[in-house]
Amino acid sequence: MSVLDDELDLKILKILQQDGRVSFTDIAKELDVAVSTVRNRYNNFISQDILKIYGRINPEKVGLNAYARISICVRPKNKITEVIEKLKELREISFMASVSGEFDLEVNVMCKDTNHLTQMMHDYINNLEGVDHTVINFYLKVHKFTHLDLDLAKHHQ
């Protein structure tokens, strides 16, 4: 169930996806609505945790050249919550999710290089109580990294 009110919400969010610093005045002009309408909807997006404004940085441009996905199997299963909480402490993790299938967790990490990644695995992740085994898949080259296509959020009838 969508928490968006209408098509105008989607249009405002699409503009903000392209430029999170665009002014409410510019959005209002583009959509032919009052500035107060844009401001109120923006504040609603923020308060409902629909929108967070941040700068997306190209990892390679700032020296993070080892980008990988790590699948983690936790045993016994009652350790999953504890492992999740410990992994949340790692600055290298940019994404973490519980998954179905053979593994319990999947994390994406960004490290300076393979030495940094290896050290993080050996010194921290593999030593966590409950981590049974892991599989690492390196991203050799990222071909597409983009924001959510908000048209997917539209109601289909």
From TrEMBL:
<protein>
    <submittedName>
        <fullName>Lrp/AsnC family transcriptional regulator</fullName>
    </submittedName>
</protein>
<feature type="domain" description="HTH asnC-type">
    <location>
        <begin position="6"/>
        <end position="65"/>
    </location>
</feature>
<dbReference type="InterPro" id="IPR036388">
    <property type="entry name" value="WH-like_DNA-bd_sf"/>
</dbReference>
<dbReference type="Pfam" id="PF13404">
    <property type="entry name" value="HTH_AsnC-type"/>
</dbReference>
<dbReference type="InterPro" id="IPR019888">
    <property type="entry name" value="Tscrpt_reg_AsnC-like"/>
</dbReference>
<dbReference type="InterPro" id="IPR036390">
    <property type="entry name" value="WH_DNA-bd_sf"/>
</dbReference>
<dbReference type="Pfam" id="PF01037">
    <property type="entry name" value="AsnC_trans_reg"/>
</dbReference>
<dbReference type="InterPro" id="IPR019887">
    <property type="entry name" value="Tscrpt_reg_AsnC/Lrp_C"/>
</dbReference>
<keyword id="KW-0804">Transcription</keyword>
<keyword id="KW-0238">DNA-binding</keyword>
<dbReference type="InterPro" id="IPR000485">
    <property type="entry name" value="AsnC-type_HTH_dom"/>
</dbReference>
<dbReference type="InterPro" id="IPR011991">
    <property type="entry name" value="ArsR-like_HTH"/>
</dbReference>
<keyword id="KW-0805">Transcription regulation</keyword>
<dbReference type="InterPro" id="IPR011008">
    <property type="entry name" value="Dimeric_a/b-barrel"/>
</dbReference>
